[in-house]
Amino acid sequence: QVQLVESGGGLVQAGGSLRLSCAASGRTFSSYHMGWFRQTPGKGREFVAAIRWGGGRTYSADSVKGRFTISRDNAKNTVYLQMNSLKTEDTAVYYCASAPLSSVSLVDQRSYDYWGQGTQVTVSS
Question: Which of 22, 81, 101, 118 is the Cys-Cys partner for 93 at CB 3.0 to 4.6 Å?
Fold first, then answer.
């Protein structure tokens, strides 16, 4: 069993920054890949960013490229999402998730087996 707990969400003005954190427990953190997804009311869950187990390979959605950065600290069992130049359309509930090492596509939410409870990010104009 893996527990994922997100934090760092909140209200920010457009153009501002937030850093989300996701603390993991329950199995060896470095033995799985990590991803961030987001969801707004009435829409499905959307891929945001992902990072492979060693941190050497990352992926980002086109909508956040150049603004969001995913990173991980395996010593702290934590994955981060640094969000800069926030836009109102970034408003969503953000979820972190873990995927087994065998996963090929980290963009596909079906690759992920454990999810956090989500943290709300609201960007005001």
Answer: 118
The C-alpha atoms of residue 107 and residue 89 are separated, in whole angstroms, by 20
Higher-confidence residue of 101 and 23: namely: 23
The helix, strand and coil proportions of the chain, stated in percent and rounded to the nearest 5, come to: 5, 50, 40
pLDDT at position 13: 98
The predicted structure's pLDDT at residue 71: 97
Token duo for residue 41: 């009311």
29: left (phi over 0), alpha (psi -120 to 50) or beta: alpha
> Rounded distance, CA 7 to CA 22, Å?
6
The stretches of the chain forming alpha helices (DSSP H) are: none
